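Session log. Operator J.P. requested a structure for one protein chain; no other inputs attached. Running the standard single-chain path with token output.
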Amino acid sequence: MLETSSNFNESQPHNGAVDAPGSGPVGEPDDTPRHRALASPSRVGILRLLRASEGGLTTRAVATATGLHLTTAREHLDRLVRTGLVERARQHTGRAGRPAWRYWATPAAGQPAQEPSNHLYQDMACALTSHLGRIVADPSTAGSSAGEAWGRRLAAEVPAAIGADPVAGLVTVLERLGFAPRIARNAAAGQRTGDPTTALHLHACPFLDIVAGGDPAVVCGMHLGVVRGALDALGADCLHPEVAPFSAPAACVIRLRAQDTPDGDIDR
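Structure written below.
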């Protein structure tokens, strides 16, 4: 059980305002309590130490880590608490005696308490793709248009030695995204670029949860757009990609068709 406290015996003005950088009068340097508190290298070091600690630290732990006297460390911690940079609480362990205060850093001004977790980004992507799928006439085309610029940007990061072979460059892009691509068995090494039998099997989908929770046409269309944009940036706009979701055992298939290529010439 935690007994929290942010009050001290020292009198201090309080009007509900939060000290923040840049709040001073125009033309005058900022001189807020927080800035004055951080003018001490020792307090800056303590704040960094607390930010690196997941569960907070006691005064004794801070003193040991910094080499400061116990009383000095406590004074610095009290100053940081008064300015709102640090919080403290007593953790009751059930043992006899008064438990020690434990201190931890409050979030930096203007920053979230913690980094957004992956599921929040996933939920946002699902919401966006679902909305796009409802408001456009052709969700697949809308997704493809969005993906093309992304594909060009990703292809620009492919090393020139690899990108000289557009299919190899495309494989590199898809690998970096986490699709685990494999060139189909009958696509011979010397026939990869522009060969009508070239096909890529994607054995993983890093966006499968978004496909399930959002609009599949938008998401798969975006994948197609990434491929188109990458091929265009790699100088292989003569290849016309098609995405066939789950058309191979445990894999989606990207077929790279040259112009006027019959369907039967593509490895499935």
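Operator note: The longest strand covers residues 240-248.
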